[in-house]
């Protein structure tokens, strides 16, 4: 064997990629999928758990600060304590920080919200007066708008804590992201997946943001292998809508973008991005909805145009920040 060949066969000098994550079961499971994908692609990778204030402070997010779930992970990334940060995308503020990039949006989970109710009930079967737990203003507003006479109760804590309130009988039902349940293997608890016509999910719900430092060119290239272009286009459109409305994760704003198949003039199938959005009054007395379809490479533009349509309909007046309704999505 020549010296040349020996060098090629020898194990490559490898940098172990440190992946920063929050400590919850959901967060470590999500980050674990990124670690596994990197290892499968031939890289060395490990998880580093970062404890954030959002994990130890029980109060509503409005009081402890927007971006509380992601800020400390990002600090660890900027300080060089980790190389990669994995976030639930919807927890990231829309304002971009030029020092970091979302190098990958892995294939997204089903973005719908899910009802977890006692006795296998669906929404329409819950009697008036039923106690339904959810803190997100977006969910509260859309549930109230259904006019079912539900009694909406505040809800926080990790997924197990939330489900526990149905099991204990404290609540008749809760509404949470289906993606969270899916990731921790609890889809069996879903009694109804809420269709977007009833309940639009939070912009970027069910998607992950895999971030690294903007200067880390080699890593950006590695992480790009995990990117799913359709998931990224959808998330870009939904978050552009949120940004254009100048709203954050505490606003009663919902959006969903989906890749759909359309026919061109010659009857050929091609893919487009369909985006639906809503802005609601906090008490559900009014819900503005709009939709738009356009080419996938115009995702950002589509989201912004849709937001402007909602603004023309009066969205700004509805979604005003109001301490009374403060809570996270
Ligand atoms: N802000 C909490 C949060 N952030 C991400 C998820 C679920 C997973 C996801 O949407 O990707 C949840 C819980 C929930 O909304 O029920």
From TrEMBL:
UniProt keyword annotations, A-Z: Porphyrin biosynthesis, Transferase
Enzyme Commission (EC) number: 2.5.1.61
Enzyme's top EC category: transferase
Positions of the Porphobilinogen deaminase C-terminal domain: 234-311
Family annotation (Gene3D superfamilies): Periplasmic binding protein-like II, Porphobilinogen deaminase, C-terminal domain
In-chain residues carrying the UniProt-annotated modification S-(dipyrrolylmethanemethyl)cysteine: 249
Family of this protein: Belongs to the HMBS family.
Name of the molecule in the record: Porphobilinogen deaminase
